[in-house]
Write a structure and sequence with these properties.
alpha+beta; four-stranded antiparallel sheet; three-stranded antiparallel sheet; 5 helices; 9 strands; 18% strand; globular
Amino acid sequence: MKTTASLTHIMLPLTLAALAAALVACPRQTETASSAPAAKPAPAAAKLGMDEAGALQVSAGDRCPVCAMQVKQHAKFACGMELASGTTFYFCGTGCLLRTWLHPERYVGAGRADIKRMMVKDYFSGEPANAKEVSWIAGSDVVGPMGRAMVPLADPGQLETFKQRHGFKKVFSLEQLDDTLWQELKP
């Protein structure tokens, strides 16, 4: 018992001295009013763009610019955005695509006017569909890579079938989507 107490008595001051030395050796970083936060690196574009019909050509290394998930692992919910420059981004799911539609400058470093087209997969057929032309469904029991999914339906005639199978709270168009509606609907 006496040995342990003696060691503690000796080790504690040595530990405190080592900590103080480490703190002195580390330069302090102070932020001044003129220093700006580091710019967020631009997300990596897809290796291949969409084809003319809007079919996605997802490569193994393509990552969602919102959450960084590997898009190829979520093929059923994958969707894409092509900018006027031809640069294409693929998303793990519709929620990440819709977030980018709301704030493209934040996620792909472009303005909304720079977006040429956004393609999704129709829920029932899996065929490419223009995100601006589909009926968007929120509040169903369909689960995607990020949780409850926002579901695109290309054929509005299938709304009743979808509702019977999965239920939903709201149907909306891309033109209706703004930050207020997003907060109400977000999964």
